[in-house]
Amino acid sequence: MRYLISVFLFLTLMNCQKKDYKPEFIKAEIIPSKIDSLNSEKEVQAFVNQLKHPFYEQKLSQDSVIIYRKFEEFELKKISEFKRSCEYDEDSITKKIADSLKINDTYYKADFDNNGYTDLLIIGDNHNCASTRGCETCDECDGPKNLKYISCDFSIYSLMNFENDSINDINLNFITKNLSLVPKIIETQNGSFIELHTPKEYNPENGELEIVNKTIPIIYKYGTFIERNQKEKDYDIENIEFVAQGCVAGCPEFIISIDKNQNGKFNAINYNWFDKDFSHDLEDNDINGEFKTKISDEHFNELYGIINYLDFPNLNNSYYSGAMHSSSIILKITYNGGKLKIIKDYGLTGTYGLKRVYQMFHEMRFNQEWRKKNTTNIVYN
User: Fold this and answer.
1) Per the structure, how many domains does the chain have?
2) Are residues 198 and 287 in the same domain?
3) Which pLDDT does position 145 carry in this prediction?
4) Kind plus residue range of the DSSP H or E element containing 186
5) Torsion of the alpha carbons at 360, 362, 366 and 372, rounded to the nearest 10
6) Between 283 and 26, where is the model more confident?
7) Residue 41 parent element (H or E)
8) Same domain, yes or no, for 200 and 269?
């Protein structure tokens, strides 16, 4: 009996250790690539401007394609060099934060995904918006004088480096739009992550811009940067429902729900294109109706994994981007014996992790073998 008790206690201890076990982090050896050879701002500027990947395709008709090369106009800028209109008076706060953190360069290098290839963090002006300015400072004049157009953009990208010098860019400033951030790379024994320091953000309760002193640690995980979580919890997620409510510009409207047994339901309401690269003018490709499927193991595990990692019960109940006429979503998560977490997001910019969740649901319209309800035939994949 004593022997059996000892064996039981040993197995119990081993199971507990296995559940809490995390593999030891082993830093990858650097694999030389083009980014490693860039040693000056001039060289980085030339590298960024010639990037051909990624690009956007928009089919305006059956035979016309426009390609937008994202970084042709990108201009590297130090945070101290930004001089935007009075509308962006948070620049002065941003400069103070950058100075205190010694973020004085336009680019930084690190291996964020630990794949051996050095990634590139760039700060600058993407020249994708314009504003006006009549004075060098907000206090120089009472009204507009000598108005001129200036760029109001403030951009931060991580250029993720993969085999054969292929680059995937990730916008690190999508949440604040044209507001500014200060990125600081943190090196640890478990790899690299980024601290984003935000001087201002929108209040989800009233949609107004407020001064904040907030730091967002983000880590490369699930194919993008999401909020770093050092205290992961394992929730029993029973069902996830995603409601995309559309917008005046023709954003997709649909509902997808997935239960813990991988049963998926898809209600395609409007603007769900069979070819997702087609513009909304090609209405013949709009998919409507109710569908069902068994969600693939890969996509199910990724979705449930990231939602668990985000510690969703402690996220805000509502988010607001500050942008007019934006699309909105409702995310409903049933867990732990019927508890319900509801997140409403106007603008789809709640958190870095939530953005990835939203993207996964939009992708699931096209990467699963959906069948029309009450049929056995695959409608599209």
Assistant:
1) 2
2) no
3) 56
4) strand 182-188
5) 110
6) 26
7) helix 41-49
8) no
Q: 99 and 38, same structural domain?
A: yes
pLDDT at 327 over 80: yes
Residue given tokens 């867990």 in the structure block:
335
Q: Is the pLDDT of residue 332 over 60?
A: yes
- Which tokens sit at 378? 């695959």
- Which tokens belong to 66? 């426009």
pLDDT at residue number 246: 79
The residue type found at 196 is L
| Residue 61's pLDDT band (cuts 50, 70, 90) | very low
Does 167 reside within a domain?
Answer: yes
* pLDDT tens figures, 215-254: 999 999 999 999 999 888 899 999 999 999 978 777 899 9
Helix %, strand %, coil % for the chain, to 5?
Answer: 25, 35, 40
pTM: 0.82
Cα–Cα distance measured from residue 327 to residue 309, given in angstroms and rounded to the nearest whole number: 25
Q: Which two tokens stand for residue 170?
A: 């990730």
Nearest to 241 by CA among 182, 110, 329: 329
Mean pLDDT rounded to a whole number for the chain:
83
* 363 closest CA partner among 290, 273, 297: 273
The Cα-based distances of 28 to 48, 147, 164, 223 in angstroms read 25, 52, 17, 18
- Local structure of residue 173 (DSSP, 8 states): T
Helix segments in 21-58, DSSP class H: 41-49
Structural domain span for residue 295: 237-374
Place of tokens 């029309």: 372
Task: Say if residue 221 is in the same domain as residue 271.
Answer: no
The CATH number assigned to the domain holding 308 equals 3.30.1560
Burial classification of residue 255, based on how many CB atoms lie within 10 Å of its CB (0-12 exposed, 13-18 middle, 19 or more buried) = middle
Distance CA 217, CA 229 (A): 9
Same domain, 104 and 247: no
Distances in Å between the Cα of 210 and the Cα atoms of 78, 119, 178, 349 are 24, 33, 14, 17
Q: Omega of the bond prior to 54 within 30 degrees of 0, cis?
A: yes
Distance (Å, rounded) from C-alpha 151 to C-alpha 131? 6
